[in-house]
Amino acid sequence: MGSGAPALLRTPLHDVHRRLGARMVDFAGWDMPVQYPSGIIAEHQAVRTACGMFDLSHMGRVYVRGPDALRLAQLCCTRDLSRIPAGEAAYSLLCNERGGILDDVIAYVLDAETVLFVFNASNRESDAAWFSQKRDQRGFAAQVDDQTLATALIGVQGPTAQSVLQPICNGDLGALPGYAFLAAVEVAGRPALVARTGYTGEDGFEVLTFAQDAEHVWDALLSAEHVTACGLGARDTLRTEAGMALYGHEIDQHTNPYEARLGWVCSLHKPEFIGRETLTVMKAGSPARLLVGVLVEPGGVPRPGFPIVHANQPVGSLTSGTFSPTLKRNIGMGYVRRALSEPGQTLHIEMRGKLVGAEVIKLPFVPHRARPRAKITPEERPHT
Amino acid sequence: MTNPADRRYTIEHEWIKAEDDHYVIGITAFAQDQLGDIVYVELPKVGDRVQAGNAFGVIESVKTASDLYAPISGEVIEVNSDLVDQPQAVNADPYDTGWMIKLRAEDSTQIEQLLSAAQYSEQTGE
Q1: In A, what residues contact B, Cβ < 8 A?
Q2: Structurally, how many domains does chain B consist of?
Q3: Which of A40, A300, A303 is facing B37, going by the closest CB pair?
Q4: How close, in Å, is residue A199 to chain B by CA atoms?
Q5: CB spacing of A300 vs B58 below 8 angstroms
Q6: What is the three-class DSSP state of A271?
Q7: For residue A322, what is the nearest residue in chain B, using CA coordinates?
């Protein structure tokens, strides 16, 4: 690394990772654990069979506050947040005017004047600037408050996550549906927001604490039985098996939501949001290409960027690819033209000059077991 | 990690050990640890000739792929076919059951150019 390289950011759990013997990597400018000594496969299996913990503090945590907070959030999000009651969160996209995806985010509706956004680490500053710019253009009364460095975010994921978290949390987690959260509870005696959200396909929680409480909360959770610290390596294999998009891989400014199969978070009935006009046109015409999952014949591991080949012609490239620890098979995702996107379609992946057989299969690779969200009834819509 | 003294090492993290009239080749404990969980090993066929310093195969972990380099030139007389189904043996036992190929050397003096266990340990800072 050259001497001009900026110092990597460190999460409040940085010392913990070093203490646990993690291997650290530069991820979007943060010094993050890619794996602990147990290894990616053991960490992955822990989340599928018991409970794994993740430091997610590199992700952006930006509060939009004020009388026009919801108007600003509604303007920037493709999803209709007026349908999300306080105490619930929603997955959404931020699109530009051309319908390109600026980020995929989770919006936590705290109250009528506060929405907490979790952004991808790589987009934190540009997203916050985007919100501020749109606020200024409209003259909205809203503050864009980046609290990333003052807070920590800990993922607690897996079928036993609730039994790990409940003994040290004073809120009733059993009653919490998917995407719901408890905004003011204590975890290990420290103030926290606990949400039933995640990025693994399993049931689980994300715990937001103040930075100074992060190590105490982490250690309390990790001291429970059968909890495994997991790094970004396992996070990637888990989300790939779950068929979930990763910004910079499946989605970016040059992909549109419909080809990424994310049309379900584009609420075109919403009278106004950035990108709505373009997305309306995009939806009317079918996308020329679609994101697919492929099961690849045994052999080398398919990696992002490897060409997808059909009838000896390149027809796309993998956006993600990995060995699936659950299926013990090689899997990948990528875009192909619509005619090649049906499950059962045979393709090839070019791996270092060799063609290896692949078959399109319906996503996700591993069924989701996350708890469903509560049904939203009209009387539960405080913002409409 | 202790590197056995009964063999030689390369700076690319292979080991080579004399055994009867041939040589056994694998990767070091340091290498398997750096790679992480190994999920695939691609080896040459019996009868293939390998050239010192050239790639003879590929090893892949969940996160990365890496070439395997031949410490000396020779003819492949056996490959560890157990690694097809059990590539994790390279993680569990890199110096014994995780071996990769056996070679008949073209010029056994080539091995004298390679690192001793102590020199290799110095290289890896172990």
Answers
A1: 23, 34-35, 39-42, 233, 237, 299-301, 303, 322-323, 325, 352
A2: 1
A3: A40
A4: 19
A5: yes
A6: coil
A7: B62
The reported pLDDT for the residue numbered A376 is 61
Here the ipTM equals 0.90
Set of chain B residues whose Cβ sits within 8 Å of the Cβ of A303: 65
Residue B125, pLDDT score = 83
CA distance A35 to A231: 4
Distance set, CA A326 to CA A229, A322, A330, B18 (Å): 18, 11, 10, 39
Closest residue in B to A236 (Cα–Cα): B63
Pairing of strands B65-69, A204-210: unpaired
Encode pLDDT of B37-67 as tens digits: 999 999 999 999 999 999 999 999 999 999 9
Domains of chain A: 14-57+149-241 (3.30.1360.120), 288-361 (2.40.30.110)
pTM: 0.95
CATH code of residue B23: 2.40.50.100
DSSP-derived secondary structure letter, A83: G
Query: pLDDT at residue A379 above 60?
Result: no
Residue B126 lies in a domain: no
The answer to whether B62 contacts A301, with C-beta atoms less than 8 Å apart, is yes
Which burial class, exposed, middle or buried, applies to B3 when counting CB atoms under 10 A from its CB (0-12, 13-18, 19+)? buried
Question: For the residues of A312-334, what is the DSSP string, one character each?
Answer: TEEEEEEEEEEEETTTTEEEEEE
Contact between B16 and B23 (Cβ < 8 Å): yes
Structural domain boundaries, residue B23: 9-121
